[in-house]
Amino acid sequence: MADYPYLHEHRSWKGSWWLPESPEMKFAGFLDYDPGEGLTLSLVGGFDDRVTRRESDEIITVLASRETFPVIHGSAQGLNLTLFDAFATGSISYGLGFFDGPSEQTITANALLVGVHAPKRDDLLFEKVVFGISDLWRWCAQSAATATLCADKEGSLTGAGTVSIAPVEPLTAQFTDASVTLSHTLRLPHLDVLAGGARGRTEDRPVMSVKALQVQSLDMLLESVWALKDLVSLGVGRGCAVQWLRLYLPPPDPDAPLDIFNQPAGVDVYLRVAETSDPEALVSDPYRMVFTLADQQFEDLIPRWEKVRTQFRTPCNILLAPSAPGGYVENRVTMAVTAAESFHKGLGEEPKETRTDKITRLEPARAVLPDADWKWLCSMVPGGFSLKQRLRSLADRLPSTVRPLILPDVEAWVKAAAAARNDLSHAGQTQSDLLRLHAVASVTRAVVLLNILSELGLDEENLATALERSAELENACQQAHKNFPAAPINSD
Fold it and tell me: 46 — alpha (psi -120 to 50), left (phi > 0) or beta?
């Protein structure tokens, strides 16, 4: 496996650690990274995590506990290390501990940089981030590796075959303030001589990188990483994981040509993430994706996704949020309809009739109503779009050839979705059975997803293909035709 800082692997470092403001006070300790638990630093000794005030030579008042150590520096195995957002989870003192600090200390940190002593988390230090995403090879729809099998005239395999590898041209696109590149790292064919025979192997691993126009902070570059991870997740149809992260400092002399003495330094990143992925794990059901780069050009898709994710951040986050199998269907309904409502609000459309127009139509009632009743009546007049209007608008935005596939009866879906959400939000319960609620959630999610895909530039042919290829969308179509079927055609 390549020398990447994989986030699914356990790592440890032993060395010395200190606070940037007190570099003379170093403590020995072990730093462990666990994919599930995150970063834990165990020190012999420790940093004083109290806020104290000396009242006299004999009296010290402890005012409060120090909540965090914003930055901790370390040196381990010849490497510079930086821990961010650390806090003590356990401090043991065998004496009074007022003067010499803890005897042992356990610290948890949010992020680790291996290869640099960073002064602060928000310092503008890095020009590029390179990273791997699970399922990226399937989604990118290009491969440097090919395999062939030979057959005879009757179609029987002859036993001959080849595995070959060839470089692939990188794909480049633009964010507002950075360039995004999708490239492939290759391992040339190699023959392992084994005690029992021989084995050939080669590798093709797609890698993404984001290079900023100007140096950025850790979190600024991470935001770009999460945005691209979400895009791949949207295309694959399930949550993908960032497998590894490596930042790059600018070269020592930006004006000099890059050579062996003027290379940008790489900084490995370790942090606790919601999902991890083993790059060596086999992929099941690899071809049931929503869309791939075969459906949309990389250089067009990336800037569109930046715009869509900014404009429709809430519905995108709802669709991409991991949902536990067997989770409560009421939550799924509420979130799906909220995503639909949020997406429509993101479109920025204005209603044809304003709230003032609606109140004007009620003016004849003003003459016969007391002032208190008139004010109450006006307070009941809604402003903007109703939920049903928003849902109908999302259905109308779908291509005419795609709409019947996912919404055979638009009005039946609109009424069911609005009633389910309103009942759950206002009455706390609904009369619909669980199977119908499941259909409402599945179909509504699918409608929002198809609208997002349309904003990304997928045409009606791509959308129709997605309905057949994606397991989630295919299931939503089946649910729609079962629960919201088209009205029968009257032959008379």
Answer: left
Model confidence pLDDT, tens digit, residues 118-153: 999 999 999 999 999 999 998 998 888 888 889 888
Report the predicted TM-score, pTM, of the whole model to 2 decimal places: 0.86
Q: Give dist(CA 65, CA 90) in Å, integer.
A: 12
Mean pLDDT along residues 17-45: 94
Q: Are residues 18 and 94 in the same domain?
A: yes
Domains in the chain, number: 3
277-321 confidence digits (pLDDT tens): 888 887 766 567 899 999 999 999 999 999 999 999 999 999 988
State whether 326 and 430 are in the same domain: yes
Q: CB-based burial of residue 415 (10 Å sphere; 0-12 exposed, 13-18 middle, 19+ buried)?
A: middle
Beta partners for residue 364, in sequence order? none
Mean pLDDT calculated for residue range 480-485 = 94
Three-state DSSP class for residue 120: coil
Position 379 in a domain: no
Determine the structural domain holding residue 443 and report its residue range.
Answer: 313-349+385-483
Query: Among 94, 114, 134, where does a domain finish?
Result: 114
The predicted model gives 473-492 an average pLDDT of 83
- Name, in order, each residue with C-beta under 8 angstroms of 339's C-beta and a sequence gap of 6 or more: 314, 315, 318, 319, 444, 445, 448
What is the spatial distance between Cα 235 and Cα 135, in angstroms, rounded to a whole number? 10
Distance CA 169, CA 183 (A): 7
Beta bridge partners of 54: 60
> Is residue 427 located within the same domain as residue 477?
yes
Smallest CA-to-CA distance from 173 within 137, 145, 140 is with 140
Beta strands in 144-219 (DSSP E): 145-151, 157-165, 171-174, 178-194, 197-216
Question: Are 166 and 96 within one domain?
Answer: no
In a domain, 337, yes or no: yes
Task: Choose the weakest-confidence range: 183-187, 263-267, 438-442.
Answer: 263-267
Quick one: 19 and 138 in the same domain? no
Which pLDDT score, from 0 to 100, does residue 489 have? 60
> CA 396 to CA 413: how far, in whole Å?
13
Beta bridge pairs of residue 30: 14, 42
* Amino acid in position 169: E
Domain assignment present for 261:
no
Task: Look at residue 270 and tell me if it is in a domain.
Answer: no
Kindly give the pairing relationship between strand 126-133 and strand 242-248: antiparallel
pLDDT tens sequence across 191-206: 889 899 998 888 889 9
Look at residues 112, 104, 120, 109 and name the one whose alpha carbon lies nearest to residue 87.
Answer: 109
Q: In 3-state terms, what secondary structure has residue 285? A: coil
What are the tens digits of pLDDT across the range 86-98? 998 888 877 655 5
Residues 95 and 223 in one domain: no
